User: Which sequence fits this backbone?
C-alpha cells in the first residue's frame, strides 16, 4: 500500500480525536436541513490554522464525511434531504419510514455510507494521479450529456405519468435560469425584482418542495407521522447486514459510480446519488418497486454520495481544482497554510497527503458506530416526539437552516412559497422530484450546451463536438440504454409470459 | 369527441389539466421575458425549454380529454383540516417577514409557539401546559446559540432593538 | 403566558443590549468585525480575506469574522450593503470591474456610487495563460495563429463582462484579431477547461500562474512592471499593448458609517497591507498589492470605470 509508513502518523491520539469529533459534528450538522457540509467546513477553517496541515485535513475530511452521511436522516425520516447529496435517498427512504422500516433504512444508510466512503478513499489512495486525468478530459460537452442522462431519470420519478414529469422538469429548468446568467451576464426572469437576482437557491428549493408539503399535511390530521410496527430495539443490524451482503454488487457499483462522479469538478454528491440510483433501478430485478421503499435504492444513493468524498479529493489534491464545493473551502484553507497542491504533493509532501488519506479511512470506519448510535436516537426521537413538538421544531429548523445558506430572509420566503406550490402540485399529480432534477441539472446542462456550442462553432466542428468525443459517446450510449432498456425488457418479459402461457 | 354514456361516470383529471394550463401561462410569460435579453446565449435555452413545456402541456390536456383518467394526485385524508394548513403557511410567512423588524429570537419564538398550537391535537393537561412552553423556549434559544454563536451565522437582531 | 412573554422580551433585550452600544472611533474596534464576502467560499476573494483575517487579529487584537452572501456574481451582497448597520462592524468585499459593469447592465439593486469604498488593497493582474506544453511560446505566436485562423482561437475566462472578458475584447481590438471567448462559471472552471485542452488559451490572472505552477505558462501580464514572482514574463506594455488591468479588490462599508470610522478603517487595512509578512504571502500566491486609501477611492474608481465601460460597450455587454 502506498505510503503505508504514514499509517501510524494518522493514528495519533490527537488525530483520532479529531476524526471522531469531526464525524460526530458533521453527522449532526448534515442532518439539519439547510446546513450543508460546505458551511460546516467553512466555519472551522480558522481553527485549522493552528494545526499541522495533515491534522487540519483530517478534521475537515471527517466533518465532510459525517455531513454527507447525516443528510440521510432527514431524508429518510422527514422526506427532506439534509444535504443535496441525499435527494435520491428520499425516493425510497421515506416510503420505508412511512411503512415502519425507518430504523432499517437508517442502518442501511449507515452501512452503505461507510462502504462508499471506504471505496472512495481507496481510489484516492491508489489511483489518484491517473484518475485526475479523467477529470480534465470532461469538457463542456460531457457535462451536457451527463446532465441529459440525469434528466432521463424523470421517467422513473414521474409516478406513472411521464408527461407530468416532463412538464415538472421543464418548470425546474426554467426556475434554474432565474437570476444573473453566468454564461452571458444577462439578468433573466427577475421581472425587476431584486430578491430574485441571486436566483433560486438549490437547497432552499429542496427544503421547500420536499419538506413543507409534509409539514402542511402533518398539521392537517392527528395521525402519527410515521407508522410504527414494532418497538425500536436494537439497530436491526443483522437484518441490514444481510440485505447489504445480498446486494453487495449494488453497493460496489454505486460506490464506484460515486467516486467517478466525485472526480468531476462541479458534479457533486447529488448527481452521484441520482446516477447511482438510476443505474441500480435499471439493473435490479425489482425495478417496479423502486420508489415504494426498496432497500436497494437507499443503498445505492448513500454509498454513491459518500464515495464522492474520496473521489472529490482526487482533483483537489492532484490538480488544485476542487471536485465539490466543500473541497473548494478545504483547498482555500490549505493554500493559506502554504500547502501547494499538485502531483508533487504525493511525492514530496507525501507525509501530509498519506497521513490525511489514512485519517479519512479512520474517520469513515468511525462513522459506523457513531452513525448507528446517532441514527438510532434520531429515529427514536422522531417517532416518540408528539406532533405538537415535532412540527414546530422541523418548521423552525427549515426556516433557520434556509436563512443560514446565504444569510438571506428572502430565501426563506421563497422556500415557503415553493413549499405551497409543491403541495398544490402534489394534489394535481405532479411530483416534486422532476422539478428538483430540472433545477439542479438545468444549470449544468445549459452551461455545458452553450460552452460546447461556442467552441464547436468557433472551431467549425459542431457535429464532431457533440457526437464525436469518446466519453460523450459512452454517456450517450447509457442514455439510450436508460431510455430503451425498460421498454425492451418489458417486451421480452411479456413475450416469455406469452410463450409460457401457450 | 367522445360522448359520455349515462352509465359511465367519467372522472377527469381536472387538477392535472388546470395545472397544465397554468404552466402554459408561465411558459408564455417566460417567452415574453426572453425578448428583453441582449445576448443570444441567454435566451436559447429558456426559449427551448418554454416551448417544450407548452408542447407537453398541450399534449397532456389533449390526452386527458380523449382518455380520461381520475388523476394520480395525493388524496386528502378524511377530516383533514384546511384551517390548520393555511394557518401554518401564514404563520411561517409572517414570522419570516417580521424577522428583520423583530429580530430572530422574538419572531422565531412566536412562530414556534404558534405552530405548536396549530399542530396540537392532544388535550391540554397540566403537565403539558407547563412543560411545552418551556421546551419551546429551550429549542429556540438552543438553535439560536448553535447558529449564531457556534456557526457564526448573522441572525437578524431586529431593527426594533437597534 | 404573560410572564413568558416578559421573560422572552427580557432575554432578547439582554442579548441585544451590548450590540446597541455605539462604538466611537477611539475604541474602534472593540469587538469582532463582520467581513461579508459577496461570493461563495473557496474563491479568490475568500482566500485574500483569510489572509487578512490572520493579520487583523495579530495587529488589532479583534476577530475578523468571515461570512458569505453569494448570489448574482456579487450583486446580492452589494445591493444589501447600505441596508446594514453602519457602525464599522460590518464591512464587505468589493470587486472592480464588477461594481462598475453590473449596474449598467440591468437593474441589479445598486449603483456604482452607492458603494462606499474605503480601501482597495490588491489586484490580480490579467494574464494570458497557456498550458506548459502549448505550441504558443509568445504572445506573437498567438497573434499569428489568430490572424491565420480568425475566430478559431478559443480562450476561456470567468464569466462575461468580467475582467477576463474585457481583457480579451481590448486585446482583440489592439492586435487586430478575432478570437472566441468562452465564458465559464468562475476561475476554477476556466482553468480546468484550459488544462483539459478544451480551449487553446485562457484569459486569467497571475494568481493562476502561482496556483498551478508547473502546469501553466504565462505569456504576458497586464501590469506596469513585471511581476516579482514571474520575472521572465513580459508585460503587455513591453510588447506594445497598453493593457494594464485586472480584477481589483477592496473593502466597503454601509453608507451610514460615520466619517471618522471610515478613515480609521482605511488606515487599518493600509496597515495590514504594509505588513511585510502579509505582502510576502500575497505575492507568493501571485497577487499584486496596491494601496488606494479612502481619500483616493472615488478618483480611482472613476478612472478605471472609463476604461471598463468602453471595453464593455465594445463587447456588447452593455448598450
Assistant:
Amino acid at each position: 500500500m502506498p505510503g503505508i509508513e504514514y499509517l501510524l502518523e494518522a493514528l495519533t491520539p490527537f488525530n483520532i480525536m479529531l476524526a471522531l469529533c469531526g464525524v460526530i459534528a458533521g453527522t449532526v450538522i448534515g442532518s439539519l436541513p439547510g446546513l450543508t457540509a460546505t458551511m460546516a467546513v467553512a466555519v472551522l477553517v480558522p481553527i485549522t490554522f493552528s494545526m499541522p496541515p495533515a491534522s487540519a485535513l483530517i478534521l475537515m475530511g471527517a466533518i465532510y464525511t459525517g455531513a454527507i452521511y447525516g443528510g440521510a436522516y432527514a431524508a429518510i425520516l422527514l422526506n427532506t434531504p439534509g444535504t443535496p447529496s441525499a435527494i435520491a435517498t428520499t425516493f425510497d427512504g421515506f416510503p420505508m419510514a412511512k411503512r415502519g422500516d425507518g430504523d432499517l433504512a437508517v442502518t442501511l444508510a449507515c452501512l452503505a455510507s461507510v462502504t462508499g466512503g471506504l471505496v472512495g478513499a481507496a481510489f484516492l489512495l491508489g489511483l489518484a494521479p491517473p484518475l485526475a486525468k479523467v477529470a480534465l478530459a470532461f469538457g463542456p460537452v460531457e457535462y451536457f450529456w451527463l446532465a441529459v442522462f440525469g434528466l432521463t431519470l424523470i421517467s422513473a420519478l414521474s409516478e406513472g405519468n411521464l408527461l407530468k414529469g416532463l412538464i415538472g422538469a421543464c418548470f425546474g429548468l426554467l426556475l434554474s435560469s432565474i437570476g444573473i446568467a453566468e454564461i452571458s451576464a444577462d439578468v433573466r426572469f427577475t421581472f425587476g425584482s431584486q430578491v430574485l437576482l441571486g436566483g433560486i437557491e438549490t437547497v432552499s428549493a429542496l427544503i421547500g418542495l420536499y419538506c413543507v408539503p409534509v409539514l402542511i399535511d402533518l398539521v392537517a390530521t392527528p395521525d402519527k407521522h410515521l407508522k410504527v410496527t414494532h418497538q425500536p430495539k436494537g439497530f436491526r443490524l443483522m437484518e441490514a447486514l444481510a440485505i447489504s451482503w445480498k446486494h453487495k454488487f449494488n453497493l460496489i457499483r454505486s460506490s464506484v459510480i460515486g467516486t467517478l462522479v466525485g472526480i468531476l469538478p462541479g458534479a457533486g454528491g447529488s448527481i452521484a446519488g441520482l446516477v447511482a440510483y438510476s443505474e441500480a433501478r435499471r439493473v435490479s430485478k425489482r425495478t417496479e418497486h423502486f420508489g415504494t421503499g426498496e432497500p436497494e435504492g437507499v443503498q445505492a444513493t448513500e454509498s454513491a454520495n459518500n464515495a464522492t468524498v474520496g473521489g472529490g479529493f482526487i482533483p483537489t489534491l492532484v490538480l488544485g481544482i476542487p471536485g465539490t464545493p466543500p473541497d473548494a473551502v478545504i483547498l482555500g484553507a490549505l493554500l493559506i497554510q502554504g500547502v501547494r497542491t499538485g502531483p508533487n504533493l504525493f511525492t514530496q509532501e507525501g507525509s501530509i497527503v498519506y497521513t490525511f488519506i489514512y485519517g479519512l479511512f479512520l474517520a469513515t470506519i468511525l462513522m459506523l458506530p457513531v452513525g448507528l448510535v446517532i441514527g438510532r436516537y434520531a429515529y427514536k426521537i422522531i417517532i416518540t416526539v408528539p406532533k405538537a413538538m415535532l412540527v414546530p421544531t422541523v418548521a423552525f429548523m427549515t426556516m433557520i437552516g434556509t436563512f443560514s445558506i446565504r444569510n438571506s430572509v428572502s430565501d426563506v420566503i421563497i422556500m415557503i412559497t415553493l413549499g405551497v406550490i409543491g403541495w398544490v402540485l402534489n394534489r394535481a399529480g405532479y411530483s416534486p422530484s422532476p422539478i428538483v432534477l430540472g433545477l439542479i441539472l438545468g444549470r449544468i446542462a445549459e452551461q455545458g450546451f452553450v460552452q460546447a456550442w461556442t467552441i464547436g462553432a468557433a472551431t467549425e466542428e459542431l457535429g464532431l463536438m457533440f457526437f464525436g468525443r469518446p466519453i460523450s459517446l459512452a454517456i450517450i450510449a447509457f442514455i439510450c440504454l436508460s431510455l430503451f432498456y425498460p421498454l425492451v425488457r418489458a417486451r421480452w418479459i411479456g413475450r416469455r409470459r406469452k410463450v409460457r402461457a401457450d | 369527441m367522445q360522448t359520455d354514456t349515462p352509465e359511465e361516470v367519467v372522472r377527469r383529471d381536472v387538477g392535472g389539466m388546470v395545472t397544465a394550463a397554468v404552466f402554459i401561462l408561465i411558459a408564455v410569460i417566460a417567452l415574453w421575458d426572453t425578448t428583453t435579453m441582449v445576448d443570444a446565449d441567454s435566451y436559447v435555452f429558456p426559449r427551448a425549454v418554454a416551448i417544450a413545456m407548452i408542447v407537453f402541456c398541450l399534449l397532456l390536456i389533449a390526452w386527458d380529454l380523449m382518455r380520461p383518467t381520475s388523476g394520480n394526485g395525493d388524496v386528502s385524508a378524511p377530516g383533514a383540516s384546511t384551517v390548520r394548513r393555511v394557518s401554518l403557511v401564514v404563520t411561517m410567512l409572517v414570522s419570516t417577514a417580521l424577522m428583520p423588524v423583530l429580530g430572530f429570537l422574538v419572531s422565531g419564538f412566536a412562530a414556534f409557539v404558534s405552530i405548536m398550537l396549530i399542530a396540537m391535537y392532544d388535550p391540554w393537561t397540566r403537565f403539558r401546559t407547563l412543560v411545552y412552553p418551556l421546551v419551546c423556549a429551550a429549542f429556540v434559544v438552543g438553535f439560536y446559540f448553535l447558529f449564531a454563536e457556534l456557526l457564526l451565522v448573522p441572525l437578524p437582531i431586529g431593527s426594533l432593538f437597534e | 403566558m404573560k410572564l413568558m412573554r416578559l421573560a422572552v422580551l427580557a432575554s432578547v433585550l439582554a442579548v441585544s443590549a451590548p450590540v446597541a452600544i455605539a462604538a466611537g472611533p477611539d475604541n474602534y474596534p472593540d469587538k469582532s468585525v463582520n467581513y461579508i464576502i459577496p461570493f461563495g467560499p473557496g474563491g479568490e476573494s475568500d482566500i485574500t480575506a483569510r489572509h487578512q483575517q490572520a493579520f487583523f487579529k495579530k495587529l488589532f487584537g479583534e476577530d475578523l469574522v468571515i461570512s458569505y452572501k453569494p448570489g448574482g456574481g456579487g450583486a446580492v451582497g452589494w445591493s444589501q450593503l447600505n441596508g446594514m448597520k453602519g457602525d464599522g462592524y460590518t464591512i464587505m468585499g468589493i470587486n472592480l470591474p464588477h461594481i462598475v459593469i453590473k449596474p449598467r447592465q440591468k437593474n441589479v439593486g445598486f449603483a456604482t456610487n452607492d458603494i462606499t469604498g474605503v480601501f482597495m488593497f490588491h489586484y490580480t493582474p490579467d494574464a494570458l495563460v497557456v498550458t506548459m506544453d502549448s505550441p504558443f511560446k509568445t504572445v506573437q505566436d498567438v497573434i499569428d495563429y489568430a490572424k491565420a485562423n480568425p475566430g478559431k482561437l478559443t480562450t476561456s475566462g470567468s464569466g462575461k463582462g468580467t475582467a477576463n472578458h474585457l481583457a480579451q475584447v481590448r486585446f482583440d481590438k489592439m492586435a487586430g484579431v478575432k478570437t472566441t471567448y468562452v465564458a465559464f462559471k468562475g476561475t476554477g472552471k476556466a482553468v480546468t477547461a484550459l488544462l483539459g485542452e478544451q480551449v487553446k488559451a485562457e484569459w486569467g490572472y497571475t494568481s493562476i500562474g502561482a496556483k498551478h505552477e508547473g502546469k501553466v505558462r504565462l505569456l504576458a501580464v497586464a501590469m506596469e512592471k513585471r511581476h516579482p514572482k514571474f520575472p521572465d514574463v513580459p508585460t503587455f506594455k513591453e510588447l506594445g499593448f497598453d493593457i494594464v488591468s485586472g480584477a481589483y479588490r477592496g473593502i466597503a462599508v454601509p453608507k451610514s458609517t460615520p466619517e471618522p470610522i471610515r478613515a480609521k478603517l482605511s488606515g487599518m487595512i493600509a496597515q495590514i497591507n504594509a505588513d511585510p509578512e502579509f505582502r510576502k504571502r500575497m505575492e507568493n500566491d501571485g497577487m499584486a498589492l496596491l494601496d488606494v486609501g479612502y481619500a483616493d477611492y472615488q478618483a480611482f474608481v472613476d478612472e478605471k470605470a472609463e476604461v471598463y465601460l468602453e471595453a464593455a460597450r465594445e463587447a456588447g455587454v452593455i448598450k
About this structure: Chain A is about 75% helix and 0% strand. The mean pLDDT of chain A is 85. Chain A touches chain B through 68 residues (CB under 8 Å). The beta strands of chain A are 179-180, 187-188.
